[in-house]
Structure formats: C-alpha cells, structure tokens
Amino acid sequence: MSCKDYSRRQFLQTFGGTEDPQAPMYGPGPNFNVSVIGIVFLDAQSNQVNLSGNQTVPVHTSFVMKFSGLINVASVAAAISFIDLNNIPIAFITSSDQNAQYSTIVTLTPTADLLHNTNYALSIDNTATDSYGNKLIINANASATFKTVT
Hints:
Layout: H1 8-14, E1 36-42, E2 48-50, E3 55-57, E4 63-72, H2 73-79, E5 80-84, E6 92-96, E7 102-110, E8 119-124, E9 143-148
Parallel strand pairs: 3-9
Antiparallel strand pairs: 1-2, 1-4, 4-7, 5-8, 6-7, 8-9
C-alpha cells in the first residue's frame, strides 16, 4: 500500500465515511428546504387527526407540527403564532421527542384548556430555522384555523 495524502472528504469517501460528498467543508450548511408537512391534533382517544380548515377540536388537546427535515425546536417556539380570532394570544409550551434540540416533530400544548365554541388560528412563520440555520419554507401546511367543540 502506498502512502497518499487525503483530504477529510476524500478519506471518508474512500474508506466508507458517512459525510455527504456534496456538503461543503466549511461555511453554511446545505439548504434542505425544510417545510411543514402538516399539523395534527390529538382527539379524546389520543389519535392524531389532521387539522384542516374549520375542524372541530377538543378544548383539551395538543397539536403536533410535522416537518420535512430536522428543525431547531427553540426557533419553532419563537416562530409560532397561536391566537383566538380576537387576536388574544394563547399561552403554550413546546416539546420534541426526548427533548431533542433538533427534531422533525414539535408538540405544542396549550397551558390551559381552550375555550368552548371558539375560533382559533395557529401558524408558524419563516423565522423558524432548520438544523443548519436555514429559514423554514412557508407553505399551505404552515397555518390552520379551527373551532373548538361547543
């Protein structure tokens, strides 16, 4: 075997490393265009139900935001707008699987039960960032309006 100098990338490619050969060695990370896949709520039996326009939602529930790639959980919490239709903010906490810093799923739980027969709006803006610091791509799945049960 001859002695040969390898860059880190060449070494990993040659000897079975896991580094993405297209990823830059230095500088900003790749842009994976992370977006919201969907928002669901938990029904009375803890089943996940798609949150779609004017869906009737229980007053005691949690919401699960699903992303197409790893998202910075702390940035999601800061980017969420959860209001009733009188523009009164709803207090909530966010969590992820095993309290990970980056996750593809973020759970939003109101700190108190929602009001009966009330309209709400839940959305996330593009200030949320992925695991590389890229802004969230906003699509139709990034917001929802719904009404709670009577």
